[in-house]
Structures are given as C-alpha cells and as structure tokens.
Design goal:
alpha+beta; globular; D-amino Acid Aminotransferase, Chain A, domain 1
Length: 655
C-alpha cells in the first residue's frame, strides 16, 4: 500500500472512530489504538506533504446531531497538541512557569453569566458550533446559578460524572446489558438530554479550566490569578500544580500516584503557561493553540496469552466477546479478562486462541487489549448462540459489526428480560435472582410476566427444590404479592421497552396522565413531544407495542396487578423539608428502602442528591460515627448529619 493510500485509509478509520465516540456514544477502538493511528497519520502527512480536507489532524471535531438548539461559539474551541513524554513537557516550558492540571474526561461546556446570573450554557460541539444546554446546566451539582460579579463572565470547563456516582448509578441497574459503559459516555448523554429532570438525577459536576471573559478585572497577566478569581466566585476549578522545568517530572509523578484514587475521570494532564500574554503571543495552528499542551499517560502494559474467548449473550440478543487470558499484573491488580466490545475490534486485532497479546488498563482503570503480536486471525466467530443454540449472525450498524442471537425464544433473552422485570426499580420482587429465574424458566414455571404471579401453582415443587424450602417459598410469595400494587412508571420500565429507563418511564407516564391505554397506544408524534424522547426512542417504543405478543403479555399481567397513580400532594412550603436538599446514605429502618425516603422528601417539596456538597442541607445517616466519605464530607462542610428518626420528626408525619 502506498503512503498516500495509507493516509486515506487512516483518515477514514479515525473519522469513523471519532463519529462513533462523539456522536453515538460507543467505541470501535481503544483510546490507545486511536492515538497510535493518529500519530501515524501525523507522521505520514509530514513526510508526504499530503493533508486531506477531512483529516482529523486539521478538523477540530464532528458535526453535532441532536434536537437541542445550536449556537456558534464567539471564539473557536480548539483541542491541544499532545505528548507522552515528560521531556516534551520540559521542552514546552523552557524557562517559563506553567500550571499543570488534570485533563478531565467528560463534556466541555461554555458558561455565560450576565448581571451575576447564569444565562447560557453551550457544549463544545464541533469546536465552532455547540448545543445550548442551559436548563440542564442549572441542575449540575456544583454550578453557582448566581455569582458576585455583575459584568459579563464567560468561562469554559468540563462537565463530569465521578466514578463513585457512575458506579452507584450502574449498581441500581440489574440488567447487565443496560449498564452504562463508562462515565464519559454517561455524562455526555446526561448533559445532552432534552429533559433536565434526567440530567439532575445523574449528579453531573462542573470544573472550570479557562476564563474567556471577565470585563474590568486585572489578573496581573497570570493564569493562576484567573483560577483564584473563579474559585472566589464559587466555581470548582480543575485541580492544578504550579510547575517549571526543574520540578515538572516530580509533579507528573505525583499525579500518577494520585490517579489511583482520583474520583474524577481523567485521561491525562494539561500544561498551560501561567504568563497569559506570552501564551497568546504564540498564536495557533489550524487545530492547536500554542499556549498549552496535553500529556497522555504512558499506560503500563503486559504481554500474555489469549486462552479463551467468552461469548456473553444479553437481553437484547447482542453476544459480547470477552477475552480471557493468562493472569498479568497491571497498575497493582491482577487482570485476567477484558471486553473486546464487538466483532469489528475482534477482526482488527486478528485474534486467535493462543496468540500473544499485549494488554493495558485504559486511563489506568479499564482492561483493554492493546495489540496482538501473533495475529493468527484463527478465532472462530460462533454461528450459534451459546445460551440457546439458535442461529447467531453478524449485523453491521454504521460500520460496526456485532454478533446477535436471532432466536426470539433465546433463554438468555428470556432470563435477562425477567431479571429486569423483577429488579428493584421495576416490580421489586425479592427472592427471584437470575439463578432462580434460570431454574424456574427451565422447569416451565415462568413463560410470561403473569406467570410470576401464579408461582403458587408449583408450591410443592419449589419447596422441594435444592436451595429452597418452606421459608424461602413463603418469603418469595409474600414478595410477589406485595408487588401486585405498582406505580405505572415502574410497570412501564419493567417491560424492557428499548431505550426506556426509569427517568424516561416517569416522564412518559406523567405525560399520558398515568393512563395505561394511552401509554400503550402512544404514537411516535405524541412521544416526541415528551421531554427527553427523541425520534429513535419513539420509533422503538411504537414498534414494541405494535408487537401483539408484547401487548398480550401486558394484558395478562394487568389481570394480576393493581396500578397505582401518584397522589397530587399540595406542598406546604412552610414544611421544614420544602426547599431543602438531602443526601441519604446507609441502611434505613422505618422505610422499605432509601428510594422510599427520597419519594417522601420530594413529595414534601425537598430535593435528594447523590453526593454531599456545600449546597446540601442535611445528610441522613443512622450511623453518625461512620467513616464513610459522605460523613467525612458533611463534617468538613459543617452539614448536619441527622438520623432517620430525626428526619421523621422533622416531617411531622407518622410513619
């Protein structure tokens, strides 16, 4: 292949990967692989002098695709040039001083304040044009809605979801297939929602990293002074260290140690000159400003042998490839497996059992395959589903190949479907684990949703099953009967309608006045008028209820349960809960679960968030002496920690 042809191939491949990452929130290659191909393209362009018009080395980003309003940025938002060598950072600094900070991995946002009020928030988009997300930004956990500065203020920062919040959100999703892949994709999807109710539930935080405009303020030509100014207005600023050529190696080493416990997703560091005028005097290239440079981590890698490819079926029929390899130590932990994501990546790596592969942890956290040194290409892609033996076929969606089971009756689809149905945020039935569901389905006890409510037909068989007994059976039936009364939105979520999460189910149910007939018969046009529902979601929703089998299963289920509509509660703003922000942690004794506490607080006009901040009014925790991070944070900020009993007394309601 000629160098010119290789340039064309790389441009096409990198643009496809960028589109998948920025527009479609999925990955067709690892960051490590992308960077390696990008560096190869840069070298080839320099060598040949050939740069294509659509090369990612000169294009800042990708076109924005959504229903959000668009806006052109006053100043283009360029990306930074990068290095993986500390020596590169030293050379960049020369005899100047700079600020070294985290390169946060989220979604870049531009905030505009006028007369002290937040008036606009716009995403980076393609660098030239972004999306207006002002209403959503107002729900970020740490953004000041007003500041003590009356002139126009414009700043840039990164919207992120912390690892702890990401893990908490995923822990509530019992269907493995529905779990979010990483904090960056979850954050991007959360910020770009059409419903800010959904954004608010995701605990998005904002960290400022650049001041664009603050009229009338003298910063003494210092970037650090700008950061201090923003912090003084109430903004969280990206954590930074002041550096020079002599100490920068030590500071990078400090960051490398800190990332092991750093709760905010980061994919490297950023170095910017503290001398603002000097940095501006250097100008910019077509793509990069010359006042800063990014540092990408050199991931620790290890060579090992691929011993097996596990094919893991899911509720949607997608069969995920998972590489199993001989144990290796990476970033202080033993690693034996890594998701390969899809068939396109399997093919690009030319995998085969027994191949020598090199693995690493992306951003020092997520195990990935970096390279296959053998490239035997002998891995057999199964043509049958490992769960049911039905036909498995490869489907190509937007250039990404994935393996799917075509059998509608696949036991994996069946089990995962019921796992979602009985989960806590759905029908909330204790005693029906995935393992138990497997057994019941295998014995023919459960064939449709309504059968869950007829398990008493098999009382004797269940009582005598290994691992069961009279007490387990009685507890199960009690839980089943307790779930017969269910809120409309929980029923809708339990059905596993494609793309419909709990928050979407809530807004759809409310929009149709909790009328199940209207919910079932909703048209695509009606659905897209609901906040947070787009064309793709509406199409999948309508297709689900167009399937007569799905409607019949729901009708049979409705004969077994009783739907609950929320009571319209007149909120008394004199109630001590109204207008207050609570965080709930630990176990509860007087409520069924923490969600029940949350529902009560919201019904009384209060608000519940997932993390303790300066805006939190109370932390509810029955263990005041706990050393949990939330307790520590509350004590640091002087936020009252109250017990469940104290909270109940505050509400004035008898529980």
């Amino acid at each position: 292949m000629s160098k010119q042809d290789r340039i064309k191939e790389l441009v096409q491949l990198l643009n496809r990967a960028g589109k998948a990452y920025y527009q479609e929130s999925h990955e067709i290659m690892s960051n490590y692989e992308y960077d390696a191909l990008y560096d190869e393209l840069v070298a080839l362009e320099k060598e040949t002098g050939m740069v294509l018009a659509n090369s990612p080395t000169i294009n800042v980003g990708y076109e924005v695709l959504s229903e959000l309003p668009k806006e052109t940025h006053e100043k283009p938002m360029l990306s930074l040039d990068k290095t993986k060598e500390v020596e590169g950072l030293k050379n960049f600094l020369g005899d100047k001083e700079g600020l070294l900070s985290w390169k946060l991995d989220g979604l870049t946002i531009v905030l505009t304040y006028e007369d002290g009020k937040l008036v606009k928030a716009v995403t980076r988009g393609n660098g030239e044009v972004g999306e207006v997300v002002t209403n959503n930004a107002k729900t970020f956990k740490n953004i000041p809605l007003s500041v003590p500065f009356k002139e126009q203020l414009v700043l840039r920062g990164e919207a992120v979801i912390k690892y702890t919040d990401f893990e908490e959100i995923n822990s509530k999703i019992e269907d493995v297939d529905a779990k979010y892949k990483n904090p960056r994709n979850l954050c991007a999807g959360s910020v770009r929602q059409l419903s800010n109710e959904i954004t608010a539930e995701r605990n998005v935080n904002f960290y400022g990293f650049a001041l664009v405009k603050a009229e009338g303020v003298d910063f003494e030509n210092s970037l650090e002074k700008q950061y201090e100014f923003l912090a003084g207005l109430g903004f969280n600023v990206v954590p930074f260290k002041r550096v020079n050529a002599d100490n920068i190696a030590d500071k990078v080493a400090e960051y490398a140690k800190e990332i092991e416990t750093f709760d905010i997703p980061s994919d490297g560091l950023v170095l910017i000159y503290d001398d603002i005028k000097y940095g501006e005097s250097l100008g910019r290239t077509a793509k990069f400003p010359r006042n800063g440079i990014a540092f990408k981590w050199k991931d620790e890698t290890a060579k090992t042998k691929l011993v097996e490819m596990e094919w893991s079926p899911s509720r949607t029929g997608l069969i995920n490839p998972v590489a199993i390899f001989e144990p290796v130590e990476l970033e202080g932990t033993t690693v034996t497996r890594a998701s390969v994501h899809n068939i396109s990546i399997v093919e690009s790596l030319e995998l085969g059992i027994g191949d020598e592969i090199e693995v690493y942890k992306a951003n020092m956290i997520i195990p990935q395959i970096l390279e296959n040194h053998t490239r035997s290409g002998k891995l057999m892609i199964p043509n049958v589903c490992p769960a049911c033996g039905g036909e498995a076929t490869i489907k190509d969606a937007s250039g990404v190949k994935s393996l799917y089971c075509t059998n509608d009756k696949c036991v994996a689809k069946f089990t995962k479907k019921f796992t979602l149905f009985v989960s806590r945020d759905a029908m909330n039935i204790d005693g029906l684990s995935e393992e138990t569901l497997d057994k019941f389905i295998g014995k023919g006890f459960i064939k449709e949703y309504a059968d869950v409510y007829k398990l008493n037909r098999f009382e004797e068989e269940i009582v005598n099953m290994p691992g069961f007994g009279r007490k387990s059976y009685d507890n199960l039936i009690a839980s089943v009967n307790k779930s017969r009364k269910v809120p409309v939105f929980k029923l809708l979520y339990s059905l596993g309608v494609p793309n419909i999460g709990v928050a979407n189910a809530k807004v759809i149910s409310k929009h149709f006045d909790y009328d199940i007939d209207k919910i079932i018969g909703a048209t695509a046009d009606e659905l897209v008028s609901v906040e947070g529902v787009g064309d793709v979601m509406a199409k999948a929703y309508v297709e689900y209820f167009a399937e007569q089998d799905n409607v019949d299963a729901l009708m049979a289920l409705l004969e077994e349960i009783q739907l609950e509509k929320p009571e319209v509660v007149e909120v008394n703003m004199d109630n001590p809960v109204a207008g207050k922000t609570f965080v709930i942690t630990g176990s509860v004794n007087h409520f069924e679960n923490r969600n029940q506490v949350k529902d009560l607080i919201e019904s009384l006009g209060g608000k519940v968030t997932g993390s303790v901040t300066a805006k939190t009014d109370y932390l509810i925790n029955n263990d005041n002496m706990s050393t949990s991070s939330k307790n520590k944070k509350a004590k640091e900020l002087g936020i009252p920690i109250i017990t469940e009993e104290e909270f109940i007394k505050m509400t004035g309601i008898e529980i």
